[in-house]
Amino acid sequence: MQDHTIDMLAAGDDVQPVVAPHRQRLFIPGPTDVAAEVLAAQTAPMIGHRSDEFEALFARCEAQLQQLFETSARVYIVAASGTGLQEAAIRNLVSGRVISFVNGAFSQRWYSVASGCDKAAIRVDVPWNTAVKPEQVADALHAALADGPVDAITVVHNETSTGVMSPVAEIAATVRRISPETLVLVDAVSSFSGVRIPVDAWGIDVLLTSSQKALALPPGLAFCSVSDRALARAADVKGRGWYFDFLTLEKALKKNTTPATPAISLMRSLGVQLDRIFAEGVEARYARHARLAERTRRWAVENGFDLMAERGYASQTVTTVTNTRSISVKALNAFLARHDMEISNGYGDYKDKAFRIAHMGEVQDSDMERLFAAMNEFLAGQN
Ligand SMILES: *Cc1c(COP(=O)(O)O)cnc(C)c1O
User: Torsions phi, psi of 29, nearest 5?
Assistant: First the structure.
């Protein structure tokens, strides 16, 4: 893409890449557009991963991630996508039973991961356009506890398939009150860094995310915080494997490195992006996401559409618009493509019945206005 072209000025050791200004193209819930300077960071020469330079990069990223996760515990950095850490959390922390709350495609995936790891996974279904509520968690826990202990619960903070955000603070508090030994595992793949999630304050044992959504990095890295008590639990769980074994990751982390070869180029872009996030200011970043979500919901309603998410639980990073005007989402995207932009169709059964507009990562107010101007132009050509 022209916008992301990097010009190397001249040959030599201290060439500075010249990067074109950012232009938002993707309004899909991952992968999201990556700032040019973050993309450019990947082109730096390779270094050994047992070098001082790599360890310094790792240590710096780790400290900034702890700040962003709002945790004094560790954050593991792995070369994988977010699903890898869904699997890691299960394999490290569940030897008996786990309750998986399912209110969309990604929470369903976590249930499938747990069953696929041969764990006793209890599936609790919640209607797909609604949030998981503390009362439902309480009921499910009480019912399961009648048959013995529950190692963990899994819940998705921001269901990307439906644009619904669940109240994980209240859910975590409910689990702690009813069953203090049950670990709280939370997927925040599409909300992390767009919405504040204070891990320690909320009592979340594992919070996992991946690079290519609100963090606006290329795909290929995943991150998870792990509480002290979760790490202690892992020591008693058999069959943790090796690549994602928390104990192995912990040992390497203490030396500011990873057990296996890290994705060095991606880690370089992570370093640059974390600096950019703190330069914007995390509060400003959260406020921007809230403002863009509000603007998107207003656009939808003003243009005769409905919103799919249960009222009060709409996502701050992706809005699911019910296609009440029965427009062709395919035609809309073909139109947007001519303006070098793209949105997402509804997920699975919601294809054409809904469409999704992501407003996460690098998206600025002016980008949204450019998108809505094009969408309005498309709608004006309808009926
Ligand atoms: C995208 C997504 C996933 C899957 O993440 P990958 O990085 O693609 O493995 C899991 N959960 C949620 C909520 C997501 O949005």
Answer: -80, 60
Report the share of the chain in percent with pLDDT over 70: 94
Q: Which two tokens stand for residue 359?
A: 């407003």
Ligand 1 atom with minimal separation from the 219 CA: 7
CATH of the domain at 376: 3.90.1150.10
The verdict on the CB of residue 160 being under 6 Å from ligand 1 is yes
CA 32 / ligand 1 centre spacing (Å): 12
Query: 215 CA to middle of ligand 1, Å?
Result: 12
Tell whether ligand 1 has an atom less than 6 A from the beta carbon of residue 214.
no
Q: Would you say 165 and 188 are in contact if contact means Cβ atoms under 8 Å apart?
A: no
Output the CA 110–ligand 1 centroid distance in Å: 10
User: What number is the average pLDDT over the span 296-324?
Assistant: 98
Distance CA 147, CA 279 (A): 50
Distance, CA of 310 to CA of 302 (rounded, Å): 18
Tens digit of pLDDT for each residue in 169-196? 999 999 999 999 999 999 999 999 999 9
23 domain-assigned: no
Indicate the average pLDDT of the chain. 95
Among 276, 294, 310, give the residue marking a domain's end. Answer: 276
Same domain, 80 and 203: yes
Q: Which tens digit of pLDDT belongs to each residue from 192-214? A: 999 999 999 999 999 999 999 99
Q: Both 178 and 295 in a single domain?
A: no
- Ligand 1 closest atom vs CA 161: 15
231 lines ligand 1 (CB under 6 A): no
